[in-house]
Design a protein that fits this description.
The protein is mainly alpha-helical. The protein is 69% helix and 0% strand. It is globular and about 105 Å long.
Length: 624
């Protein structure tokens, strides 16, 4: 992708939009957001800045849904009006039957005079086109009534090395397997909230299956899918072949081995015993780390040998993400830091940097390539991309300890994390503005694309989900939401609503180009809507129930009462999770259809073969 020539500086309109938004946002940072004391039960819940911001963010998809409802209602009103016009035409036809011949001729002459216009076919002639040389094909003069509008197929691009194509497909294929496996475990874990006594087997206990689910979807699904898509982007924007295919295969083997061994170890009760998302013991996580080191060397050498003058912004994000992932893993597993409060601080750093500086940073780099590719136009502003890149690195690396507000961690460190969380508005607004403005002038392409809806959902939740994290960081809202199901909903809004939808958009964009086989458009639509609706059924009830649960704790009510209160919300969690899980099965079916070679019948060759067979006798038919 080439950047636009007139975007060397950040657009002035962006600052006109950003500064008032920052001022408004800072007004929420009242002393209650940073005060040591908590809220009393009688305080007005809707005066808290985090609550206000969260409600505002939730209203964004609601407003979008209302807009869609208005569009549908408008179409309904048009159909009603069309029906009325038809009835009026029937009545007018009945009236015409009462007229005599002279009156009808007079009306017809008036109609001819009023309706006369050029039909733009004066030079075309009245005859149907002839094609004796067979230059035209796929002509269908009869319009078919379709249940689903036909989407645009993938454009054939310049060829890619078949060996690299095979490597990418293996990355994406194994990632799909871990998505289905990991979320199948998650589906079972979600059922345990509704039926906790469903089994009595130790290796199926919640404490063992929950880390199996999270680590499988983190390191198996998301990481492998990102790396597979990255192996297409990095050499593509560098205008050169990947440095080493063998290194790519070693990465694929090592990461898959780490997830397989880690899953077996976790179900056997062998784990790190440390914090969340680092349950794999260090020898197993070391395999993953070696795979990342190999990938970093491979990417760096590819970029270093590039045939383009500049390093496109996608490679900035992708290479930096791999660097951060290696650093994060080392910091998390080196035992020198794991003493006392240091272990807690490192845990906050690890789990938040893993999300923001590995998954989010890498995926944003992919979007900076795949979104302009699908829209067939450059990214709106290269400078906004660089601003979002550096501001995310500056602010996101500070926010890990906002998970431990009101803990024994130094108060100043907690405050730094909260300020860093507020500063995340800069990269989020910059990136969102860049993506949305890239759509400017080409919104009509969304209706004919099965990939762009995935990117749109990812962009919406990139904005709302990220700023929701900012709202959770305030002390006033952290007091209510922390340790409740609200944080579970937030993690799914980000890792699923952002990362998964962006990855699906990239996969549907690139696999048909590699295999020349499109997925069934109906099942792509089923995948999209089941995943989206399931996520909303999953997250919204948990956010509401989590808020109620936090207020019950503040009021000093018994813990078991909050557990009983959450039962219906956990039921909705299971329903939403089931929809999401089924959508993953549909996605796996789509992957199979895109990858599995399908035999097609060549009518011409088959006809000639039949004519040459012994069973067919050619008979000359005369015209006499």
């Amino acid at each position: 992708m080439t950047k636009q020539k007139n975007d060397s500086k950040v657009p002035r309109n962006f600052f006109k939009f950003l500064f008032p938004l920052l001022l408004t946002f800072l007004q929420f940072l009242t002393t209650s957001a940073f005060a040591q004391t908590g809220n009393d039960a009688g305080d007005d819940l809707f005066t808290l800045p985090g609550i206000i911001i969260t409600i505002t963010l939730l209203l964004i998809p609601v407003v979008a849904a209302l807009f869609l409802l208005v569009v549908k209602a408008n179409a309904l009103f048009k159909n009603i009006q069309k029906r009325k016009d038809t009835e009026e035409a029937v009545r007018f036809a009945a009236y015409l039957k009462t007229l005599n011949v002279d009156q009808l001729e007079a009306l017809q002459n008036d109609r001819k005079h009023q309706d006369y216009h050029l039909n733009n076919k004066e030079l075309a002639g009245p005859f149907s086109p002839a094609d004796s040389r067979g230059l035209l094909s796929s002509i269908n003069e009869q319009a078919n009534i379709r249940f689903i509008e036909a989407k645009r197929k993938a454009i054939v691009r310049p060829g890619i090395d078949p060996a690299l194509s095979r490597l990418i497909l293996w990355f994406l294929g194994t990632a799909t397997f871990w998505l289905v496996f990991g979320t199948s475990v998650g589906e079972y874990v979600g059922i345990k909230f509704v039926a906790p006594d469903v089994d009595q087997v130790s290796w199926l206990s919640f404490g063992r299956l929950r880390p199996v689910h999270t680590n499988a979807v983190f390191w198996g699904w998301s990481s492998l899918a990102m790396l597979g898509l990255g192996y297409y982007v990095v050499p593509r924007v560098s205008n050169i072949q990947i440095h080493s295919l063998k290194a790519g295969w070693w990465t694929l083997i090592l990461i898959n081995a780490s997830v397989v061994l880690g899953t077996i170890a976790l179900m056997a009760g062998i784990n790190n015993g440390g914090g969340e998302y680092r349950e794999y013991i260090w020898p197993i996580q070391l395999l993953f780390g070696i795979g990342l080191v190999i990938t970093l060397i491979n990417y760096l050498k590819t970029v270093a040998n590039r045939k383009t003058t500049e390093i496109y912004v996608s490679n900035w994000y992708i290479v930096a993400a791999v660097m951060f992932a290696i650093v994060i893993s080392i910091v998390a597993y080196v035992p020198n830091f794991q003493n006392g409060l240091g272990e807690t601080i490192i845990q906050g750093y690890y789990m938040h940097q893993g999300v923001g500086m590995w998954f989010m940073l890498f995926t944003l780099g992919l979007v900076y390539y795949y979104l302009p590719q699908q829209l067939n136009k450059p990214i709106y502003s290269y400078s906004l991309g660089i601003l979002a890149f550096w501001s995310q690195i500056f602010f996101y690396t500070l926010i890990g300890t906002h998970h431990f507000v009101f803990s024994a961690i130094p108060w100043s460190l907690q405050t730094v994390a909260i300020v860093g969380s507020a500063g995340m508005i800069i990269p989020v607004v910059s990136g969102t503005t860049n993506f949305v403005m890239t759509f400017r002038g080409v919104w009509h392409k969304v209706a004919g694309s099965y990939t762009l809806p995935f990117f749109i959902v990812g962009i919406i939740f990139y904005f709302t989900g990220s700023l929701q994290g900012t709202a959770e960081a305030f002390r006033s809202t952290n007091l209510i939401w922390h340790f409740t199901d609200f944080t579970v909903a937030h993690s799914h809004l980000t890792m699923y609503g952002i990362i998964a939808f962006f990855l699906w958009g990239g996969i549907y964009a690139i696999v048909p180009r590699l295999t020349r086989q499109e997925p069934p458009q109906v099942t792509v639509g089923i995948h999209f809507w089941m995943a989206f609706i399931g996520m909303m059924f999953y997250t919204v009830p948990l956010m509401w129930g989590g808020t109620m649960r936090g207020l019950m704790w503040i009021e000093g009510l018994p813990f078991i009462e909050s557990v009983t209160m959450m039962a219906p919300y956990w039921l909705w969690r299971a329903i939403g999770g089931s929809l999401m899980w089924v959508s993953h099965l549909v996605f796996a079916y789509n992957m199979y259809n895109m990858i599995n070679p399908r035999k097609t019948v060549n009518i011409n060759d088959t006809a000639i073969k039949n004519l040459r067979s012994k069973e067919v006798e050619l008979v000359h038919i005369s015209n006499e």
